[in-house]
Amino acid sequence: MAVIVKNVSRPEKDLVNSFVGIGTATIHESVGKEINNVMDNAIKPLKRGTKLVGPAITVDSFPADNLTVHVAMTLCKPGDVLVVNGHGSIGVMFGAQMAFQAMQHGIAGIVVDGAVRDSEELRNMGFPCFARCISPLGSAKSTPGSVNVPIQCGGVIVNPGDLIVGDDDGVVVVAKDTAGEVVKRAKARDEKEAKTRELFRQGKTSMELNNYEKILKEKGVREVERLEDL
Questions:
Q1: 161 and 220 share one domain
Q2: Core-most of 66, 116, 148, 169, by most CB within 10 Å?
Q3: Residues 21 and 56 in one domain
Q4: Residue pLDDT, tens place only, 41-91
Q5: What is the pLDDT of residues 99-151, one digit of tens each?
């Protein structure tokens, strides 16, 4: 049964803004490698250099039918990100007309596990759009899906209100109840990497700073001066 949930708990705006400028790779490492929070790498930005940060409004659409995306757009608040499970269908979920409407309402962007169209126009508009594929096909508007329920998008579970961050590397999802701790770890990681680069400027290497030589020895790697010495 299709369900439309109108109200969503979102992270505080200041917390959302604190993720701006932090890369998806850093955020993924800060969430923890043991947690699957990185969407399938087939979901890419239409335009290089695209940045996306905001709480998720989730959409579980019937394949090749974008009726529910139109519904979800009316429930978005400024800064929200539409996250659409289009089930990988090449029936289009989103296009330039919808993007124009979304921009008028302050929607931050969209992530689609499925197809979008009008790709050149979307790039020129500057509306942040991440999608699995591009297609000229139209879509039906006859079979309702659900809005603001837990969905799967790009192989990752997304709950309404979770934080979505996208850039050229892909899209990551941060559970809303962990966002505060994740951003602290992410900023600490960026600071650590800045200090490491200063050591690189001084001539240090990643081998010595991380003691990788120990790993090579533990794995029994043999070192020789020349190939003929083997």
A1: no
A2: 66
A3: yes
A4: 999 999 999 999 999 999 999 999 999 999 999 999 999 999 999 999 999
A5: 999 999 999 999 999 999 999 999 999 999 999 999 999 899 999 999 999 99
- 123 with 37, same domain: the answer is yes
Whether residue 73 is contained in a domain is answered as yes
Residue 129 and residue 201 share a domain? no
pLDDT for 61 equals 97
Q: How many domains does the chain divide into?
A: 2
Query: 191 and 171 in one domain?
Result: no
Kindly write down the DSSP assignment for every residue of the chain, as one continuous string.
Answer: ---B--------HHHHHTTTT--HHHHHHHH-TTS--B--TT-EESSTT--EEEEEEEEEPPTTB-HHHHHHHHH--TT-EEEEE-TT-SSEEE-HHHHHHHHHTT--EEEEEEEE--HHHHHHHT--EEEEEE-----B--S--EESS-EEETTEEE-TT-EEEEETTEEEEE-TTTHHHHHHHHHHHHHHHHHHHHHHHTT--HHHHTTHHHHHHHTT----SSGGG-
Residue 138: give the domain boundaries.
13-177
**Does residue 23 sit in the same domain as residue 89?**
yes
> pLDDT at residue 34 above 80?
no
Same domain for 105 and 161: yes
- Strands 109-116 and 81-85: what pairing? parallel
Is the pTM above the cut of 0.85? yes
